[in-house]
Amino acid sequence: MTIAIIGGTGPQGQGLALRFARAGVPVALGSRDATRAAEIGVALRAQLDAAAAPITGVANEEAVMMADELVILAVPFAGHNATLAALKPHLEGKILVDIVVPLKEGDPKKVEMPPEGSATEAAQALLGPDIPVVGALHNVSATTLKTLEWDINCDILVCGNSLPARKKVMALVETLGVVAYNAGDAEAARCIEAITPILIRINISKQVPFTHAGVKIQAPAH
To answer: pTM score, two decimals?
Structure first.
C-alpha cells in the first residue's frame, strides 16, 4: 500500500518517509518542486537497505494520485489551507492524515489555533465531510524520526471524526513500532496539537538534561 507524504521534503516528512519505507511501506514523497522531491527521494532511499520499500519523489498532485488511500500532510501551517485547497480535487476516496501544528509565528513555544479550533478541524472544514481527516503524529521530533538508530520515544495520539479512518491510521503508524491510541473525534486535536509547543519549550530548556522528548501514556504500577 503506497502512502503519500505532502511536504515530504521537510524534516518531518523526510523522517517519516525513511521510517515508513524501512517498515516496508512504499512512499510517494510530494513537493511543490518535483525535481527537488525526486532528488531527496533518491537520497533518502540510499540511506536504507535493499529490503526497504521505494521512496518516489514527485509533485504534490502526483503523490496524492499515487497513494492507495492514505495521504499525510506535513507542510508548515502557513501553507496548510492553500495546499489542501489545491489538492482537494484529488483527495476523493482518500483519508487525509494531518500532522500539522499551528505554531505561533516567531514563537514555536506557543500555538496560534485557527478559528476552527485546530489544524485538524480546519482541514476537515475545508475538505468537507466526504473526505475523512485524521490528526496524528503531532508530537514526534523530526530529529528522532530521521535518526534511524533511535527508537521513536513516544506514543501516538490519533483523532478524527471517522472511527474507521482513525483505525486505519492507527494501524499504519503502528508499523513504525509505536503504540497508537484512539484519542476521539477531531476536537481532541485542540489538546494534542497544543502539546507540541510544550515539548519544544522543554526540549530547548537549559534546565532539562535531554532533548527530543516525547509523550508516553503510562499504565499505573498497581
So the answer is: 0.96
